[in-house]
Every structure is written in C-alpha cells, then in structure tokens.
C-alpha cells in the first residue's frame, strides 16, 4: 500500500487535495473528500484536531502519532500519521502510512543493515581463518611424510580432509566479494529456465517444477550469472525441504513471474518491479529460524551450510532488490523483487 497524502486548509482542517492512495483506502472519490473535515475520517478526530492546532500555532515543525483511519464498509486501518506545514502558506500536509507497511519498511531496513554487517563479519572471519588453515594443512602433510607407521597417516588424512572442507567453506563465504558485478541484458525467464533444468537433472523423479510466467516482463540490466545462482539457491533449498514429498512423488515447486506496479521497497518507490515467486508445497520454514533465515550459517536441515539464502540475498541486493519469505506448513513463498526500467 502506498503513502496516503492529504493537503488540508490550516484554518479549518478541510481537505484541499487527496491522492489516489487515500481515495482507494477510504473508498471515497476525491470530489467527495475535497472540502470535508479530514478529522471526521478518524476513529478519534480529536487527535488530528489537536495536531492541526499545534501546526497553526507553529508549536512544531512536524508531529507524528498513531491513529485509526475509518474505511467505507470495512474495518478501520491503523496508520502512522505525520502532520507538517505544506509548501503553500495556509496549508498543512498530512501523510499516513498503514502500520503494516511501516513495519515492513523497518523490517527491510533491518535486513539491509544485517546484510551489511554479515558481509563485513564474513569477510573478516574468512580472512582470519584462511591463513592458519593453510598452515594446519601444510603441517599435516609434512608430518605424514615423516611418519614411519603408515597406520598413523589415517589421522593426518583426517586433518587434511577437514582442512580442505573448511577451505571450501571459506571460499564459498568469500565468493560474492571476489567476483565483479558483470552487467548485461537479463531475461528473467531464461534465468528461470536455466534453474529449472538444473534442478530437474538433480531431481528427475518425484518433483514437478511448474511455470507460471508473465511473458510481457521486459529485459533489464543485471548480472545473469548472479541471478541464476540466487534463484538456484532458493529452488534447491525448496527441493531439499520437499524430500518427503519427493519420495511420495507429489513435490511441487512453482516459478511465478509478475510485474508489480507502484511498489515501495528499500524505502524507495518504483513504477515497475519484477516479482519472482518460488513457491513450494513443503513443510514450511521452522518457526525457530523464520526471522533468521537470511543470516549466514543458519539452516533448517541437518548438514546444511546455511549459506544458500545469505548468498541469494546478497546477489539480489546487488540489483537493488530484496527477497521476502512468507511460510506456513504446506506453502512457502520466497518473493524476489527487483526494480525494472
């Protein structure tokens, strides 16, 4: 839902202008709204009346509070209200954000901040691990060459094998920061088809990957390889979560593309955005990790590295987008949003 905007006359609080988002929310036309007392559209009119009196008296530059906005034939909607002087003398600007949208924006901001903190932590930690790891592996190799008892080489082989496994993990942690962002024209359906073919090779039986494409979606500038990896990580996660259904033969993953119009994410408004859904009919994300699934090394399955979704979020954020997750038992929906030209 967009920001709701009303411009009021300062002397009596009558509506001078209402944007389309406010009209839609109230279920009233602009003609009906113009000239009406705006405070009458709130469950507690006194809150706005007090704020308008303060604005007229220049008691503040801007005032924020929470209220409930009435809607025609619907329940009131909780909103965050901002009252401030408008550019024109004698007018007051009132902006309203539905609290659900406000909470979502806060959540997106926390995700971005967390992603940045994760990136710095991972990069520093990986570099700290990398050097001593090489020393451990080298020392194990030298020790193995000096051992007379060949049975003892089993222990040195364990050290070497585990060092190599950790090295592989470190390389994966550093991968997004090592490769340059190679921008070209991207067709999202070519990305989806590539991912689909890769997953079906890995799961030839028991898994159906359905297509639900909007073929009108235009190409956009992006890094095709990174987007393939991001979508592949999400789809592979879904396939792994569907293991029981794969065994039964009724596992389904749906790749759905749509154009979202006039959407706000990352505290920016976009006229058009790609909306790519990866939907599965699995057990859902465990409640214990729902709020942390994009954190590094957090996994909902035994043996998982917990890097797939972290890397996917990193690659999508490089395209000024974000990934959201909505999950209940029987349906998990990962939604990728990327601005379109």
Automatic annotation (TrEMBL):
<keyword id="KW-0067">ATP-binding</keyword>
<dbReference type="InterPro" id="IPR004358">
    <property type="entry name" value="Sig_transdc_His_kin-like_C"/>
</dbReference>
<dbReference type="InterPro" id="IPR003661">
    <property type="entry name" value="HisK_dim/P_dom"/>
</dbReference>
<dbReference type="Pfam" id="PF00512">
    <property type="entry name" value="HisKA"/>
</dbReference>
<dbReference type="InterPro" id="IPR036890">
    <property type="entry name" value="HATPase_C_sf"/>
</dbReference>
<protein>
    <recommendedName>
        <fullName>histidine kinase</fullName>
        <ecNumber>2.7.13.3</ecNumber>
    </recommendedName>
</protein>
<keyword id="KW-0902">Two-component regulatory system</keyword>
<keyword id="KW-0808">Transferase</keyword>
<dbReference type="InterPro" id="IPR036097">
    <property type="entry name" value="HisK_dim/P_sf"/>
</dbReference>
<keyword id="KW-0547">Nucleotide-binding</keyword>
<dbReference type="Pfam" id="PF02518">
    <property type="entry name" value="HATPase_c"/>
</dbReference>
<keyword id="KW-0597">Phosphoprotein</keyword>
<dbReference type="InterPro" id="IPR005467">
    <property type="entry name" value="His_kinase_dom"/>
</dbReference>
<feature type="domain" description="Histidine kinase">
    <location>
        <begin position="124"/>
        <end position="341"/>
    </location>
</feature>
<dbReference type="InterPro" id="IPR003594">
    <property type="entry name" value="HATPase_dom"/>
</dbReference>
<keyword id="KW-0418">Kinase</keyword>
């Amino acid at each position: 839902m967009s920001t709701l905007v009303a411009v009021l006359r300062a002397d009596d609080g009558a509506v001078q202008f209402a944007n389309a988002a406010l009209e839609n929310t109230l279920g009233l036309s602009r003609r009906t709204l113009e000239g009406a007392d705006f405070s009458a559209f709130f469950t507690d009119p006194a809150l706005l009346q007090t704020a308008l009196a303060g604005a007229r008296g220049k008691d503040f530059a801007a005032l924020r509070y929470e209220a409930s906005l009435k809607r025609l034939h619907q329940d009131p909607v909780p909103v965050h209200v901002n009252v401030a002087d408008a550019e024109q003398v004698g007018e007051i600007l009132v902006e309203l954000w539905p609290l659900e949208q406000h909470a979502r924006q806060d959540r997106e901001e926390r995700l971005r901040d967390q992603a940045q903190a994760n990136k710095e932590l991972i990069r520093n930690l990986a570099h700290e691990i990398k050097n001593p790891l090489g020393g451990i592996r080298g020392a194990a190799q030298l020790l193995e060459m000096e051992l007379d008892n060949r049975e003892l080489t089993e222990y040195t082989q364990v050290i070497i094998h585990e060092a190599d496994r950790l090295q592989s993990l470190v390389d994966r942690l550093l991968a997004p920061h090592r490769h340059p962002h190679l921008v070209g024209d991207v067709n999202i359906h070519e990305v989806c088809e590539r991912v689909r073919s890769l997953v079906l090779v890995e799961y030839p039986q028991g898994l159906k990957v359905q297509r639900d494409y909007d073929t009108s979606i235009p190409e956009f500038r992006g890094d095709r390889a990174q987007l393939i990896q991001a979508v592949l990580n999400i789809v592979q996660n879904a396939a792994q979560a569907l293991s029981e259904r794969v065994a039964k033969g009724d596992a389904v993953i749906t790749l759905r593309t749509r154009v979202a119009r006039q959407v706000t994410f990352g505290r920016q408004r976009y006229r058009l955005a790609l909306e790519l859904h990866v939907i599965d009919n699995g057990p859902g994300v465990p409640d214990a990790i729902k709020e942390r699934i994009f954190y590094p090394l957090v996994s909902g399955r035994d043996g998982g590295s917990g890097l797939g979704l972290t890397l996917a979020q990193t690659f999508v954020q490089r395209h000024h987008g974000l990934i959201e997750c909505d999950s209940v038992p029987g349906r998990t929906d990962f939604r990728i949003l990327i601005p379109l030209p």
